[in-house]
Amino acid sequence: MNGRERFLGFLNRTPIDRPPMWIMRQAGRYLPEYRAVRSGVTDFHQLCYTPELASEVVMQPLQRFNLDAAIVFADILNVVDACGTEIVFGQSGGPCITKPIRSSRELDNLCFKKETLAPILQTISKLRIELPNHGVIGFVGSPWTLACYAVEGQITKELSQIKTLLYKEPLVLKQLLEHYCEAACWFVEEQIHAGADCIIIFDSWGGALGCDLFNEWSLQYQQTIMQAAKSHPVFLFTRNSYAYLDSILATKPNGICIDWTCPLPETLKRCQNQDVLLHGHFDPKLLHASDEVIQQTIRQTLDHIESHRHWLPSLGHGITPDIEPNKIKLFLDTLQQYHWNLAPLMTI
Ligand code: CP3
């Protein structure tokens, strides 16, 4: 069974020999070969918008590790860029928007230039041809999370600018979210046409909204994007999402990605009951532990799960630049050598 067959089998609930493997940010700065390519371009945008370079960095972790799927190399903020807002990716400290959107005046400057995203679609088409034995994953940012970056300018965990806008000028924020939602729907449809096997919606900042606001300001837009994907598999990733699990499951996604703050056995059981797939769970910082602790943590976690059929075990967030590549190999080897229980579950 090759990686693509395993990945599609997992998505389609057909028999597989073991869960497929892929990790968020598997291509990135923790790899010296990525840093070499990155140092040869003027900025991060150039990497995202050059299909030859973007696909080269996608291949890098596949050459090192036994992975079953690849995620297109780009960024959720490319959509913000395509909508006319300039983003600067500095050497460290995260992305910065020099002219944040804070009033109806800035809304007038929004325009969606689809051609900006064309190179990312070309990267997906190229990967689809060059990686016949791997799944190919596309992605988009949730409108709420894109708006967090666009309104905050330089993000902090208080999100004070966007929350001020939400309470003071809700109609302005609604218009911004609708604008991003329309762009995201188009982008998702095109990624599917280009060959993406599955789409992830990254809602990295949805967790900051709280239960009363989450549906109205984040989830409903994610639902619209899912509808644009039609019956194609879509995974929803909201960081810190356990409090919203029922609302998220009610939208009937194909799958959800979880971080380490969600209790795994309970979350998996609730997902399995509704035939929803699960991705993620482990804290990337676990990879700073000794090899013995990493192996023991993985095995103990897996031993506590009755059936592993609905779970693609992985890190619950992206690999950070401080992680040793050898620890990723150990993480994947430990998972791959485990004796999985993949018996199909009776679902209700
Ligand atoms: O391998 C992959 O996962 C694919 C590529 C990918 C990147 N960003 C590359 C990237 C993906 C899927 C993303 C998604 C993304 N980008 C999210 C959602 C997931 C999450 O992390 O919560 C968010 C919130 C962003 C926004 C963003 N882009 C931030 C906060 C940063 C800076 C912080 C950081 O991790 O570096 C970026 C820049 C970025 N995106 C880099 C990479 C490899 C580093 C840029 C560089 O090489 O200089």
Walkthrough of the structure:
With 348 residues, this protein is α/β, with parallel strands linked by helices. Helices cover 47% and strands 12% of the residues. The chain contains 15 helices and nine strands. It has helices spanning 3-12, 32-39, 44-48, 51-64, 78-82, 104-107, 118-130, 143-152, 160-168, 170-194, 211-228, 245-250, 264-273, 291-303, 325-336; strands spanning 69-71, 87-89, 95-97, 135-141, 198-203, 234-238, 255-258, 277-282, 311-315. The strands form two sheets. The protein has a seven-stranded parallel sheet with strand order 1-4-5-6-7-8-9. It has a two-stranded antiparallel sheet with strand order 2-3. Helix 13 links the parallel strand 7 (255-258) and strand 8 (277-282). The radius of gyration is 19 Å and the shape is globular. Coproporphyrinogen III (CP3) is lined by residues 24-29, 38, 44, 71, 73, 75-77, 89, 94-95, 139, 202, 204, 318.
Name the beta content range.
5-15%
How do the SSEs run, as a string of H and E?
HHHHEHEEHHEHHHEHEHEHEHEH
Structural class: alpha/beta
Major beta-sheet overview: 7 strands, parallel
Residue share in helix: 40-55%
How would you write the strand order of the largest sheet? 1-4-5-6-7-8-9
- What coarse outline follows from CA principal-axis ratios? globular
Distance between the terminal alpha carbons, to the nearest Å?
29 Å
Are there runs of 5+ residues with pLDDT below 50, and where?
Answer: none
Number of strands: 9
How many helices in DSSP terms? Answer: 15
Spell out which ligands are present: coproporphyrinogen III
Q: What is the averaged pLDDT score?
A: 95
Write down the Rg: 19 Å
